[in-house]
Amino acid sequence: MTDSNSGQIDHVLIEDRLFPPPAEFTKTAVFSTQEQYETMCNQAAEDSDNFWRGEANEHLHWFEPFKEVCKWNPPHAEWFVGGKTNASYNCLDRNIEAGLGDRIAILWEGEPGDQRTLTYSDLRTEVCKCAEGMKQLGIGAGDVVSIYMPMTPELAIAMLACARIGAVHSVIFAGFSAESIADRNNDAGAKLVITADGLYRRGRVLPLKATVDEALEKSPTVNHCLVLRRVGNEDVSMVEPRDVWWHDVVDPQPGELPAKPMDSEASLFILYTSGSTGKPKGIRHTTAGYNLWAKRTFQWVFDHREDDIYWCTADCGWITGHSYIVYGPLSAGATCLMYEGAPNFPAEDRFWELVEKHKVTILYTAPTAIRAFIKWGDEHVEKHDLSSLRLLGTVGEGINPEAWMWYHKKIGAERCPIVDTWWQTETGGIMMSPLPGITATKPGSCTRPLPGVIPAIVDETGKEVDDQHGGMLCIAKPWPGMLRGIWGDDDRFVQQYWSTVPGKYLTGDNARKDSDGYYWIMGRIDDVINVSGHRLSTIEVESALVSHEAVCEAAVVGRPDALKGQAIAAFVSVRDREPNEELRKELLLHVRKQIGALAQPDDLRFTATLPKTRSGKIMRRLLRDIASGKEIAGDTSTLEDLSVLAKLQEDE
Ligand code: 6R9
């Protein structure tokens, strides 16, 4: 244990289970020996230019070759300088030219059960039509297009159509309010909004266009709105000449538009992420580096093979959907399942029904979903044949070891490796993850960095901490997929990511490296709890709670305490047990046994649900305010369900 002045974080939860990669898996894996991985890491670290030159030349199409691999003018990086490529070309034409035109690119299922399949050739035709339609609406290279759509193939088509003509897409998750859409339109200066007449969510129709109409009243830069008919909503109001239907403007096009050669560093997209306070940041990614990173990390981590049916359950409104539904898998020629609806509609077995029906081989989902499945009960899983699965992945939050074990046993039948992938909107793609053919996994650890990723864990003075202690996770060298800036706000970019630890990219997460060189993410820097001079990570206390059989989800925060500095408040959701005083005592004792008296919560509240962002992350910031009896401060626009807050406050 260390004292608070060192800036290090105490590590209190011991996890020593180890799961070697299954021999069968290793035989045919993309990475099949440790040596292969070490060699690539060494090359990428020591001879970075040659390594990335080779990768870019082999894995992207170049209309014009690049002249320089990386221009690093801290904190601004340019990759593959002087080259011209096109992300839509890399995802479509390049595969079609390689003979994959008839391979299924998107296998889609809507919430009501409607299905569509698009081959790579079909997808190119649709993308070209959409691109041609957008050009008729006056959209060209460099223009920003907001996309506010349901998870239909047209969402991916619209993204790729923007890429095809060099327009910059800004996908806005279709659960955001009119206010949020308007903010994003205005910040980016969007010229076009693409939306639909509605979307299905748990059997209901949400009127997307009506929300967009409200946003457009406050979006002076937007000239047109392109509307897909998805639900047959009769109440859609079309304002001429601003609003046009997809079936009028896109469907009649020839579908033959060649991809426009784009500078490597041309903006490919903006994606807004919520800062913990203040206005959302438009994270800017560019063409070549991002595309290469998404493609190669997909191939490495998901061990992609020709016959895989790959399913990433994210929404394209998040970075996971951008990199691992669209750009990564499609560049790699993968067949992707895309699903429109909720995991519990019409019933709690919907995901497993889809896995069985489409013979999914690789499943990539989030800890929040896994915890929900645990809560809903194993019977929903057991109804289905999941034997097609060969690899499982998670992303979005730390996964508590017991949730990992459930995923391993119930979904993976103890034979599928799990890749716990750590990364961020800003990193463009996966940064740390097991490689399923070679990495022995430990529940709760994202294991080791991918080739080209050089992490550093530092204390508040910027000095690297010793192994086994937690500190701030930084990335010491640029990588191709890194963000290039915050749209229209370079000062904020420098301030947010590059000022705390000069010369290094600050991730905002804490992490620890163990004696095997494995990394453990310890939660956000702002979430550390300081109890009597001991700095504790939220995830370790939460994982101790979740390791009790009655707990499916826990969130832990600090609240001010006159004696200890901070006291620990825990919010816990349980299954199969009455949330009563007896259980409360049992849980407190359980934490004390697992990790010691120091980490035993001072308050423990039972709650049916925790406040989450729309992408499923626990919002500890709000819980902190509730625990300390404060008014809720800051931006709550990303909160999924406001009623959760009201309930938690009532319980006080
Ligand atoms: C891809 C994505 C990024 C933040 C990140 C971290 C958390 C993501 C994680 C994880 C522990 C993992 N996070 N993956 N924490 N283990 N495997 O989620 O991007 O929405 O920008 O969030 O999510 O805190 O900093 P984004």
UniProtKB/TrEMBL annotation:
GO terms for molecular function: acetate-CoA ligase activity; AMP binding; ATP binding; metal ion binding. Residues 37-91 form the Acetyl-coenzyme A synthetase N-terminal domain. Acetylated. Deacetylation by the SIR2-homolog deacetylase activates the enzyme. InterPro entries: Ac_CoA_lig (IPR011904), ACAS_N (IPR032387), AMP-bd_C (IPR025110), AMP-bd_C_sf (IPR045851), AMP-binding_CS (IPR020845), AMP-dep_synth/lig_dom (IPR000873), ANL_N_sf (IPR042099). Signal peptide: none annotated. Residues 540-617 form the AMP-binding enzyme C-terminal domain. GO terms for cellular component: cytosol. ATP binds at G396, E397, G398, D420, T421, W422, W423, Q424, T425, D509, R524, R535. One of its GO terms (biological process) is acetyl-CoA biosynthetic process from acetate. PROSITE patterns: AMP_BINDING (PS00455). Its EC number is 6.2.1.1. Residues 100-487 form the AMP-dependent synthetase/ligase domain. Keywords: Acetylation, ATP-binding, Ligase, Magnesium, Metal-binding, Nucleotide-binding. Its cofactor is Mg(2+). CoA binds at R201, R202, G203, R204, T320, N344, S532, R592. Pfam families: ACAS_N, AMP-binding, AMP-binding_C. Mg(2+) binds at V546, H548, V551. It is an enzyme of class 6 (ligase). It catalyses: acetate + ATP + CoA = acetyl-CoA + AMP + diphosphate. The modification N6-acetyllysine is found at K617. Catalyzes the conversion of acetate into acetyl-CoA (AcCoA), an essential intermediate at the junction of anabolic and catabolic pathways. AcsA undergoes a two-step reaction. In the first half reaction, AcsA combines acetate with ATP to form acetyl-adenylate (AcAMP) intermediate. In the second half reaction, it can then transfer the acetyl group from AcAMP to the sulfhydryl group of CoA, forming the product AcCoA. Belongs to the ATP-dependent AMP-binding enzyme family. This is Acetyl-coenzyme A synthetase. It comes from Novipirellula herctigrandis. The gene is acsA.
